[in-house]
Amino acid sequence: MTSRSVIACLVVAVVASALGVVYSSHVVRELYSRQQQVEYGQWQLQEDYSRLLLEQSTLASPHRVISIAQEDLAMSAPALSTERVLHGFGGALR
Fold this sequence. Notes:
Oligomer: single chain
Radius of gyration: 37 Å
Helix content: over 70%
Number of strands: 0
Order of helices and strands: HH
């Protein structure tokens, strides 16, 4: 091989290497952008989940349930005189 052909091969190798670096940088930037989008979506979902947990705890509070049962559904606790305790029902209680 002559020195010109060696230099030409080295130039081709350098250009190929540079194109590889450019391509890999492009891929890394695309993947990083996608990761940022996924993390933002995860953050939004976590925020929604926290909001829903708070709403659930508010809606299921005992005071609210009792209030709705009494006011909206006209429910009341049974009178103590009408309550009966069953003993030995089905053999399960003794």
